[in-house]
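URGENT: need a sanity check before tomorrow's submission.

F., can you look over the 7399_t:CDS:1 record below? I want to be sure the sequence and structure line up before it goes out.
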Amino acid sequence: MYSNEKILADVDVIAKSIDDATHSLKSACSVLRCCYDSNISKESTKLRGEATNHAMVYKEKIFPFANLVVNNIRIFCDNHQFDFDTFKDCIDDFKEEVDKKHKLVMYTTELHKKILKEFKQEEDKSKKIYNISELEVKKLEKEVEYLRSSAKISTWMNVMAIVPIVNLFVFPTIIEKSKMGVIATIKEEQLEREKATKFTIGLIRDESIKNFTTSLEKITAFFYNLSLYLSSLADEKSIRLYYNTSKATMEKISLSCLNFISNIPAIESDLDAIDYKYNENYVNRWYTEQKVRINGREMSFLEHGKILFAEDKRILEMLGTDDE
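C-alpha cells as predicted:
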C-alpha cells in the first residue's frame, strides 16, 4: 500500500526520472538533427526520408505533450507550497488535479510508445545498411592506405627525373603514382561518405526516445499510486501527514521540471533544424490513424484523447478536436 514513506522514496525517483527525461529528450532531438547534416549513401538517404515522417510527428504532435506534462508537474509541485488550511480546504480539488495529471502523463506515455514503435520498424533496415556500411568502411580504409602508400614519390625519383635519358624511365612511374594519388582522393571521398552513413544509421538506432519513454512510465506510475493514496486520506491527521511530507520534498521535482523547461529552447532548435521533405498528410492525420488499445478496445489517439480530456479545452485544441 502507498504510504508517506513511499512518497518520500518516489519523489527522489521522479526527480531523477525527469532529469533523465531531460537528458534523453535533448539527446534524441540532437540525434534527429544530426541525421540531416551528413552527405550519406543513397540507401541511407531513403531510410532517413522514411524516418523523417516520424521525426515530424514527434515535433508537431508529441513534443508539445511532453512539454505540457512537465509544466503541469511543476505546477502540481508548487501547489504544495500553500499553507495547510488552504491545502486542506482544497484537498478534493487537489485529488482531481492528480487524476488529471495521471491521465495526461499516461496519454503522453502512450504517444511515445507508439512513435517509438514507428521508429523501431526501421530498425531491421537500419541494421542491414549499418552492417554493409561498416564492412565498406573497413574495405575503403585498406584501399586508401594502399593507394596513398603506392602513390608516394620517393626523393630519388624526383632527382632522377631531371637527369637526361634516365628521366624517360622514371616519368612513367611518376605519372602512374600520380594517378594512384587521384584514385586515393576519390576513395577517400567515398570513405567519408560511408563513415557518415554509418554514423547516421547509428543515430537512427539511438535509444534516447526509448529512455525518455521509460522515464514517463515511472512518472505515470507515481501519479497513479498518488491518486489512490490521496483518495484514502479520510481525516485531518492523515491529510496533515501527507502535507508535511510532500511540502518538504516536492521542491526536488519542481527543480527538475525547471531544468527540463530551461532546455526546451535547445530541444526546439534541434527539431526546427530538421529541414527535409515529409508526408504532411501522414503527420496531420497521425492522431486519427494511429491506434491504441485501451481496456481491450482499439481506438484512435484522437478518440482516446477526446474521452480523457473532454473538459480540457487546451488539450482538445492541441488534438484539433475543439468544435468551437
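My own read: Confidence is low (pLDDT under 50) at residues 153-163, 165-171. Residues 4-129+209-319 form one domain. If you see anything odd, call me.
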